[in-house]
Write a structure and sequence with these properties.
Shape: globular
Largest sheet: 4 strands, mixed
Strand order of the largest sheet: 3-4-6-5
CATH superfamily of the largest domain: Vaccinia Virus protein VP39
Order of helices and strands: HEHEEHEHEEHEHEEEEEEEEEHHH
Number of helices: 9
Number of domains: 2
Length: 314
């Protein structure tokens, strides 16, 4: 969906040609609506560097399901994570001036394999510094002069369209938001930060202790609640149970616990969590909007990294 292209534009870096390797038709649709001059190349395994002009910057984020602590951690045995080596191949074939690879936190042994192939150590950045979302990621790049960004102090309450919130920051949003994120919620009460996160019917957890309580639902599944005090929500991810909702549903599906109603995040709110412009993804269904936003980048993190290019002669 061209989060990298948004970041380049946000920093003010002019692009002569922007090539994209994408196979998801909905992501392509969003890109072409917003950046119609994008040249779509399709499946990365079929792209040859010799067919491309001189390349200044190669950027990407190989699928993370094989690495993520939230997944099965199949590492490079996972066919999706093997696409990392296609990134390496194209880097060798195009010999760009600069490169950027993003991925999740992973076991040090997997991280070291990527480091060995790219020749640089990763930079750790949490999206919470530039957004209302906790999203801890690793960035391998040879772009110079990258420092940890200052905290913009953006809170979840700042980005919601209506209602109140429990947590100061959102959880990591995932690509399966549509299926899973409806099972997550946030609100504020005297006991602390409540996050709906697992399946336990009719009970919830406060400070690690199970509590009996009535959970009324309208269009959503009963789940467990945990109290969190980290001041941030998790990142947008593919597992919706890791994502939040705000209260005041106005006729939308909701949970009700102790008289407080909760709803899931809207697509626009998820765009704001990823610092994507409002309605950038509005040309596709909400299901696809949630999914691609969970798969995407936090644009202002990428823009922060690209600031290192401004003093370079590219």
């Amino acid at each position: 969906m061209s989060c990298g292209q948004i970041a380049l534009e946000r920093v003010g870096i002019k692009v002569d040609n922007y090539f994209a390797s994408e196979i998801d038709k909905y992501a392509i649709q969003v890109t072409q609506k917003n950046y119609p001059n994008t040249i779509q190349l399709g499946d990365i395994t079929a792209i040859k560097g010799s067919d491309l002009p001189e390349i200044d910057l190669v950027m990407g984020g190989s699928p993370c399901q094989g690495f993520s602590f939230a997944g099965k951690q199949l590492n490079f045995d996972d066919p999706r994570s093997k696409l990392f080596f296609e990134f390496v191949r194209l880097m060798k074939e195009t010999n760009p001036k600069y490169f950027l690879l993003e991925n999740v936190l992973m076991k040090k042994e997997y991280e070291q394999i990527i480091t060995d192939h790219l020749g640089v150590k990763p930079i750790f950045i949490n999206s919470a510094f530039v957004s209302a979302q906790n999203r801890k990621r690793l960035y391998w790049t040879n772009i110079p002069n990258i420092e940890q960004t200052n905290d913009k102090e953006i809170l979840l309450q700042d980005i919601v369209e209506d209602g109140g919130v429990l947590k100061e920051k959102s959880q990591t949003i995932l690509s399966t938001i549509y299926k899973e994120n409806a099972k997550s919620m946030v609100t504020r009460n005297k006991q602390g930060l409540l996050v709906l996160c697992g399946a336990m019917r009719g009970r919830y957890v406060v400070d690690g202790k199970r509590q009996d309580g009535k959970i009324k639902t309208a269009g959503l599944t009963k789940q467990r609640i945990e109290v969190r005090y980290d001041g941030k929500t998790n990142a947008l991810t593919t597992v919706q149970k890791n994502n939040n909702v705000v209260y005041e549903p106005d006729g939308r599906p909701y949970y009700e616990i102790d008289g407080i109603r909760f709803r899931k995040l809207t697509p626009t709110e998820c765009e704001r969590l990823q610092t994507v412009p409002d309605n950038y993804t509005a040309c596709v269904s909400n299901t696809q909007r949630y999914r691609m936003l969970g798969n995407g980048w936090t644009v202002d993190v990428i823009a922060h990294i690209f600031n290192g290019l401004l003093d370079e002669n590219i």
